[in-house]
Amino acid sequence: MSESPSEERPDERSGALRGGLGRAVEAGLSGESASARGVLDAIGGVRGVIESLLPATVFLVVYVFTREPRVSAIVPVALAVIAVILRLVRREPLSAAISGLLGVGVCAAAVMFTGEGQSFFVPGFFINGAWIFAHTVSLLVGWPLIGLLLGFVRGSFTEWRGEPVLRRAASLCTVLWILVFAARLAVQLPLFFAAEAGSAGAVEALGIARLVMGVPLFALAVLFTWLVLARVNASVGKASVGRADTRAGDAPGAGESAALSSDE
């Protein structure tokens, strides 16, 4: 008997979702209780958090002491290169380190081009704007991005659309992520323009806002997504049981079958 798509490669799906938002979606749908450890794993673990916070933190610290934008931008790049070398020496996967190096490299290139400290944060504005656009379009066409991720976890990209509670949850979580990205821009863009106008302390304020609204805000959104889907999982489970009981009650000999099963 052939296997269904949802049963085809569960281990591969689990492996792909061990980190990131997919981890929270998978945990919520499985009914796993939210925990600090689980959220930490979902945002990349201790090492992932450090690697996410380090570039902007190092840039900000060096900038505060030197007031040299280009020097401040070079130091995070040097650390990212060291991280890649260490992973090579330890024969660890390079994907995270290389993506981090590319990200820091783009930020540093912006500073090198303009010679202004606030330019280090410009690529982040485009990234947040792109996510807002992608999530918004997905909602407008009726395929919220969180729903697609939810479908991947369940083993079908379309089945979840047949469950109204899942569709509502996917839309709610997608709106939440839009608000997260929009909040970052709403706070950080005015600080950027203040720095452009030469306001004292604006670059430092922008750097602090970037740090506060980075990993911590991401973690809160992950936790919210997890809790929403955990509640939805319970509702879907009850609904499935109810439908199964109805079908069983309509079947011939259903009462006898139920009595036999309860005695086993």
Taken from the alpha-carbon principal axes, the silhouette is globular
Instruction: Give the topology string: H per helix, E per strand.
Output: HHHHHHHHHHHHH
Helical segment count:
13
Secondary structure category: mainly alpha
* Cα distance spanning the termini: 28 Å
Provide a concise account of the structure shown:
By secondary structure, the protein is mostly helical. It has helices at 5-8, 10-16, 21-29, 36-42, 45-66, 69-90, 95-114, 122-140, 145-154, 164-196, 202-212, 215-250, 254-263. The chain has one domain (10-241).
SSE topology sketch:
Layout: H1 5-8, H2 10-16, H3 21-29, H4 36-42, H5 45-66, H6 69-90, H7 95-114, H8 122-140, H9 145-154, H10 164-196, H11 202-212, H12 215-250, H13 254-263
Overview features:
264 residues; mainly alpha; 80% helix; globular; disordered N terminus; disordered C terminus
Describe the structure.
The protein has 13 helices and no strands. The radius of gyration is 24 Å and the shape is globular. By secondary structure, it is mostly helical. The chain starts with a helix and ends with a helix. α5 runs antiparallel to α6 (69-90). The longest helix is centred in the last third of the chain and has 36 residues, at 215-250.
